[in-house]
Amino acid sequence: MAATVTPEAVEKTVVEALPQFGVDESQISRDATFEELDVDSLDLAELSQIIEDEYGVQLKGDDVGKIKTVGDAIDLVVAKSG
Amino acid sequence: MGDRLVARPDNATALVTGASKGIGAAIAKALAADGWHVAVNYRSDEDGANATVKAIEDAGGKAVALHADVTNGAPDELFKQAEEQLGGPVLALVNNAGVTADGLAIQLDDDAWDRVIGTNLTAAFRLTRRAMRPMIKARYGRIINVASVVGPRANAGQSNYAAAKAGLIGMTKTVAAEVARRGVTVNAVAPGFIETEMTKDIPDAVIEAIPARRVGAPDDVAAAVRFLASDDAAYVTGTTLYVDGGMSA
Known about the structure:
The complex is a heterodimer of chains A (82) and B (249). Chain A is built from four helices and no strands. Chain A has 82 residues and is an all-alpha fold. In chain A, helix 1 packs across helix 2 (41-55) and helix 1 crosses helix 4 (70-81). By secondary structure, chain B is of the alpha/beta class. In chain B, 41% of the residues lie in helices and 16% in strands. Chain B has a seven-stranded parallel beta sheet with strand order 3-2-1-4-5-6-7, with helices on both faces. In chain B, helix 2 (46-58) links the parallel strand 2 and strand 3 (63-67). In chain B, helix 1 (22-33) crosses helix 7 (218-229). The longest helix of chain B has 29 residues, at 110-138. The radius of gyration of chain B is 17 Å and the shape is globular. The model of chain B has no long low-confidence stretch (mean pLDDT 95). At the A-B interface, helix 2 of A face helix 4 of B.
């Protein structure tokens, strides 16, 4: 059963997931870019998989290609769930 | 110092496509002997798949026969069944299922082309794409594509098969580069002439052209796959291991 999508829940999921890609937790904010955080395309693909497993929201390669910041990722998941 | 990466997790499942007979059956048995729980996939030869499972169980291993046509484009169910029935994530995938539909290119119809590309290349890609999910999560995975000496080299009458197998080698290299940092290796084996039903009519002249002067056995290929699936091969990725009695030398 997929969890309910809320901006807060998705933010928590993203913030908890990023450190496993080597991101320093203190650097994470909505405005931080994935480039600054050294999060690469494979990391984003894996983050997409975590989101899909948790919320049942599928993010395609095209979607993921557009996002730049942590906030973009959270907003995209919320928008796609609607 | 280079660290040797993590060991294979307990209860790891290996999915071998086209494992009811020939090279696939030999691979399934070899992986089971190495401690993998093996999902023996088959399309039409249920008796063959059951015989493979029984041989594995008789040797003290764990296996299950799973029916699926790998060309149907929906491998989710196959992975779910493998994981449920064997009790662990699929952390090794051997894309072995293959077909031939030979003919000189000038006479090869679209169906023969599509069927061979569809089974030997497209299905392998779809299974690979699905398999990477649990592997990346586990930071451990082994994908082994059964290619062929045909592809890297010519074989008149098999333009479709050669294209598929060469494509498989190309796919192997790129996917390997994409996921290497997650502990997932992707390699190919390229058998030469191996004694199976698919190759039972090999002319003597062809055998004379093999440096080893004999055809190989399915177990020769299985041993190479077993190595590539092992922890010992953790730093081997993106490569093609030829098992061909020197044909490509």
